[in-house]
Design goal:
The chain has about 300 residues and is mostly beta strands. The chain contains 2 helices and 27 strands. Strand 2 and strand 3 form a beta hairpin.
Amino acid sequence: MDTAAAAQLSHAPSGTQWTIRSGGQEAVIVEVGGGVRAFSADGRDVVAGYAEHERAVGCAGQVLAPWPNRIRDGQYTFGGEHQQLPLTEPERHNAIHGLVNWARWSLVDAAPDRVTVAHDLVPQPGYPWPLRLSTTWSVSEAGLRAEHEVTNTGDIAVPFGLATHPYVLVPGVPVDELTLRVPARSRLLVDARLLPIGAAKVAGSEYDFTEGRRLGATVLDTAFGEVDADAEGGSRVTVEAPDGRGVVVWADAAFTWWQVYSSDTLPADRLRKALAIEPMTCPPDAFRSGRDVVTLEPGSTWQGAWGIRAI
């Protein structure tokens, strides 16, 4: 991409666009949020993205860090110090989805089939610690792959978590007709603010997708835990249409939670048209509960990878 084109595209709500291609796979990575705006395989859309002239609808394709999901009242304590985050979900009085999904990420490296983008998170109210975040996005015959690295560039330990927010779809097939498989034995119970208040086993319930079943009218905005690892130590969530077309979202062992959202609160043109399948390193409100929060020591780097492929 030449400089003039990059300058022109940087005025788009999602900033500069980087298109990567290989083996019939094509993805568009964006400057704002450092996420994926579009991904297709052999001409078939695999994610429900958004147009260049739009902002990311429903956080589509964004990277969520240094925490995923929600924090009650935006308040937590770490290292004996109380923190107050901005309430970015004011209607529910929560801090949601971290601090980097609307920030500009810079280009580090680019090739026809891959791009690396990075963001330096500066100390700020509610999260007074610096981080260096980097994501390498690549495409191949195996699909779309994201490799994340996060380094604590400060001099004290910090709390950390990460998730991503892709919406997957099978073109022409409503969410209700998809068969969903989530290899998880429990789910979080939530209150009216979508904050966890307990947990329940999924076995035998409408939330049991361990063997794969048709979604039907089930409404999901659900965090699944007690994930069964695969042979590589990671896990994968699968959606499949009656005709055999489908999508696999996989994640390595760094991600031990899955959030599944059936798009029931999106605008009418997106209502139950795609499923958000979100790999998470920790559950909602983890900065308060401490559950599965990563403690990054000074100078240490966390790494995790996940991806999407069409079937």
